[in-house]
Amino acid sequence: MRLLNIFITAACALTTTMAVHAQPYPSRPIKIVVAYAAGQGTDIATRYLAGLMAKDLGQPIVIENRAGAGGNLGTELVKQAAPDGYTLTMGTNATHVLNPFLYGKLPFDPALDFEPIALVGTFPMVMAVNSASRITSAAELVALSKRNPRSADIAMPSTTARLVVELLKDLSSVELFGVPYKGSGNAMTDLLGGQLPAVVDTPTALRPHLASGKVRALGVTSAQPSGLVPGVKTVAEQGFSGFEVVAWNALYAPRGTPPAVIQTLNAAVNKVLMQPETRQRLLELGFDPAGGTPAQLADFANAERRKWEPVIKRADIRVD
Fold first, then answer.
1. Looking at the structure, do residues 45 and 107 belong to the same domain, yes or no?
2. Residue 167 domain flag
3. Residue 59 in contact with residue 30, Cβ under 8 Å?
4. Nearest-CA neighbor of 278 among 294, 289, 262, 267?
5. Rounded-to-integer distance, Cα 97 and Cα 85, Å
6. Residue 114 is part of which domain span?
7. Residue in 139, 123, 131 with CA at minimum distance from that of residue 233
């Protein structure tokens, strides 16, 4: 009788465990960790996207901001989470491509410790000048620097902006001079005040100044013209073939998350991104909508790593 009771207890426990695991995904709220402060572009876009995905998935999606160390803190927390599809991260080109080359040591490997779900959105950088400047294109800016070094210093309020300058140096063989800034505000103050002639920044940061006519765009750094800056030519089509620099956001899960869960999440992301109102809203938030398969995101991120590692090492760009 004692053995029978033990068997029955074990069988009930096994049945309960199987029932729990047999529940369709998702059966409880999902958390997306944003490794940046609330109110930043990645956070705002993630909250918007999560609200739409929650309706499709039938479960709430909670956003948790865990900023610090250039996005590394929050990203590490997701690496350590259970691979069950209930803790995700909105990765960026910083956390999942650039940071391994910018920081001396990371507690995670973005290529090995995460399952790609889908590319959510991209955005180019914009090269711009004070509207009083006679420079009208990226090609003219480079030509001016070639004739008279230090005559066309470029404000760089972010690491991505610096990558734009470094890649343009590589492709043009011209010693461009970039001036680092801690943020867009100070860079824009100096640009408008005439302390330096040019800046590289995001479409969102430049939008009000472009709209007011105080700043003029010279070129966008994406391979194709961007709806974020209508009517502006790419840097690539101004004589710098192959030039492309884009920042991006993509959804990731911890390594080992079941393929069926990844496919469910991927389908939800793509369904949302196909809606015209979603695409319009993301453009308003400063993102070109993306989408695609997990494999396409993996290939894209790997290509980005191969591209930027030698550029960062040649320029000796370090954060820590």
1. yes
2. yes
3. yes
4. 289
5. 22
6. 29-122+247-315
7. 139
